[in-house]
Every structure is written in structure tokens, then in C-alpha cells.
Design goal:
mainly alpha, Four Helix Bundle (Hemerythrin (Met), subunit A), 213 residues
Amino acid sequence: MRDELQAAWEALAGEVADLRALLARQPPTGWRRPTRLPGWDVTILVAHLARGVGRIAEYAATPLAEPPARDRRTYWRYDARAAAPEIDARARAAAAGATADRLLAELDRALVAGAAAVARLEPDAVIPSVMGPIQLVEYVPTRLIEVCIHGLDLRDALDAPPQPTPAALAWTTALLDQLLGGPRPADLSEPVAFIEAASGRRSHTDPRLPLLG
């Protein structure tokens, strides 16, 4: 279990580092570019990402003495449409007045604090989350899948190739395959195409899709 947690964390950290390098090369106008998420520009999306990664350390600071109620699969069972206004409000609040330097520093701090939390706690430690109590080893992959999917949103907005890091791609497709619960459609054998259809970034005729709101 320790090896699994460490592998998930390293995949997440590697993907964040790759995105950070992309963002660090952007001029000020790049941070104002719209993303394919309605109403969100790059600044708002990065603020949302930094907050999501930062929650690993935030939640790990108050472990719980109770059984988990969620795992990496059931975490996604919620009404995405109902949750959207609150998620949007939090992201906009986090982005308000933020500079590129500040958001990059927040990503850096989230990685440092997250690494310390992963090293300090046992993998089966139960931590709080917005979806309910969950083991750390189950929570980190949820952050990884979100970083991978939103990383594709960022790359799209910044005209960068849609190429997540190999480890992030492997973890994300593996979890989405579990959520799908059966063979992928034949035309979604390519990982990025599958991720985009599973996350609703592109339409598909398979009634099981999208898997995430």
C-alpha cells in the first residue's frame, strides 16, 4: 500500500511540474486566455488546480478515527450539476487578484506540503474530504485524475500538445477504465481520446459516457 501511495503521489507531482513549466513560459496574456470550461480563463483554472492539490495536505492535517465512506471510485458519485455553482464560486474567489507568480508559488507550496503529508501518514489513514471520509491512498488518485483532466484543459487553452506525463496518463486511464466497468468503445483506444470522452470534453454515442460530470 505504501508503494501504491508513493507511485500515485509521484505521478501527480510529475504532472503538476510539467504543467508548471508550461505556465511559467506564458506571457501575461496567456493567463487571461479562455479555457473550454465555460467562463473560466487560465488564471481561474490554475487557482482551482492549486486548491485541489493543496487539499491533500489540508485534509491530512486532521486525520479521522472513523471508517472511510468513499474510495477512489465512489468519490465521483455526486450531482456534478448541483455542485457546479459552489465549485465555480470557490475557484473565482481563489483567483481574485491573483498574479501568475502567486499561483505558481501556490502550486509549489501544495507540492511541498503534499509530499510531507504523504510521507508522514500511513496510506490507510482516513482523512476528511468534501465527499466524506476517505483513506489517503484512495484520495491521492482522485487529485491525480483531476490534475490530468484539467491539465488537458490547460494545454488546450495554451495551444500545447495534449500530452500528459506518461504516469499521469496511465493512472487516469486505469481509474476511468474501472469506472467504465467494461471494454472501452473501439474508437476510444487512444488514452487522451478516452479521457476526453469520459470527462465530457468530447461527445460520444456510448450511453455510459461521460463518466465524470
